[in-house]
Write a structure and sequence with these properties.
Length: 104
């Protein structure tokens, strides 16, 4: 987990971080129960220690060769991570949005 934490600290743009509070395991469990999902351990760690964040502009995700062929993209710009704050990156709102889009 330490390697994951170091990576997060190199890609998060702390200059635009709007909030500094973290989330408890209870917050995450509540979200999982609400949507009947189980979040990955890394993502749960991120939510508990960082919350919502914007990513530095120069950061790009480079997918594996197989994934790149499927997506037909060699790199993907990552702007932010969804989190638990009530803002434009709130995971709760994103789940509802995508669920509605998929069910149309």
């Amino acid at each position: 987990m330490e390697q994951f934490k170091r990576k997060l600290e190199t890609i998060i743009d702390f200059n635009v971080k709007e909030f500094n509070n973290n989330w408890t395991e209870d917050h995450i469990k509540s979200l999982e129960r609400k949507y009947k999902i189980k979040l990955p351990i890394d993502y749960s760690f991120y939510l508990q220690h960082y919350g919502n964040d914007y990513i530095k502009e120069e950061y790009r995700f480079i997918p594996s060769e197989d994934l790149s062929k499927i997506m037909m993209l060699e790199e993907i710009e990552v702007e932010s991570f969804y989190g638990l704050y009530n803002d434009e990156n709130a995971i709760d709102n994103k789940i509802k949005l995508y669920k509605d889009l998929l069910l149309e």
